[in-house]
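Q: Give me the 3D complex with iron/sulfur cluster.
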Amino acid sequence: MSVVNLLEFDLDGLTAFCEQLGEKRFRATQLFRWIHHKGATDFAQMSDLAKSLREKLAGVAEIKPLPLASEQASADGTIKWLFDVGAGDAVETVFIPEDERGTLCISSQAGCAVGCRFCSTGHQGFSRNLSTGEIVAQLWFAEHHLRKRLSLREGERAIDNVVMMGMGEPLQNYSALVPALRTMLDDHGYGLSRRRVTVSTSGVVPMIDRLRDDCPVALAVSLHAPNDALRDPLVPLNKKYPIDELLDACNRYLDAAPRDFITFEYCMLDGVNDQPEHARELVALLKHRVACKLNLIPFNPFPASGLKRSPRERVTAFAKILQDAGIVTTVRKTRGDDIDAACGQLAGEVQDRTNAATRMTRAPIRIHPQ
Ligand code: SAH
Ligand code: SF4
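A: Here is the predicted complex, encoded as structure tokens.
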């Protein structure tokens, strides 16, 4: 039997694994809690498991985090970690501290096959899907690292919000995604509520339906344009699943969603999709069609995009048209752009890997002001 990384399992998976070893179900729960509640990596530490079981586990299993390649901290407290996933690939995870909570932005793939025009990950192309364990390892690391770093009290948690908005299209890595989401939601895992776990998708319609049936969490849909002619070149997946089909899928999703709205993300690109007529077209498209909120994202530039961020006044004017029409609209605050950690800037480059240790920086961060 080869050695299995237990981060790959949700609780059902771990239970099946323990049963194969001839162990009772409740042992799996204990083990799961050691891994995810306590951040243990050493079976010898797991004092309430029988010594014989600990020894058995040590021969067949491990708890293997992702190797950290570098860490950068932004002046605004945002932290970006780069993890080495082998074969020259790396993925990024971003921690965004807010006053009362901490959000973790997690990657689902090394690269992305969708190839959106305005996205640095998309420009990079697709390398491979992450496994469930590699997705969970990002949360496992951040939660347990930050608890120590922030000197949190027993029972306090560092991450109370997860967004699948890092590198990759989560719904194109569905089979690995779902057990990872279940681990996030599980009370014996991270105990996050469904409302506080968000999957963001560029619109993989059949998988939106499957997610509704298998594991409904909050859904964000990257819309970026009010019509197919404009969306096709920005989000190439639109040619396969055009806006009309996408909005139908959103409505079906709402039947099971933990929130009574879908969040539409709209990246504001100077002179491309940011005109008042685009805002009016959006109103006409969405108003009586889908219960939704709009989140306008100022475009985060990266070399080679050839695109520019819309000026602030244009974003404000665009937001006003939507708000006046009764659509709740927010403008996303740009976080961590000084370390290329903002939306769409994640490229997972492993430049200067040799200097990774010296590039580690430390900045004071606080998430729970006392
Ligand atoms: N693949 C998924 C999730 C990852 S991208 C998706 O596309 O939804 C997360 C969000 O960042 C998406 O809304 C995406 O459109 C947005 N984004 C991508 N590139 C961006 C950029 N350069 N500036 C601002 N937002 C960007
Ligand atoms: Fe992929 Fe999302 Fe980037 Fe589009 S925006 S290329 S779907 S990661």
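A quick observation: The radius of gyration is 21 Å.
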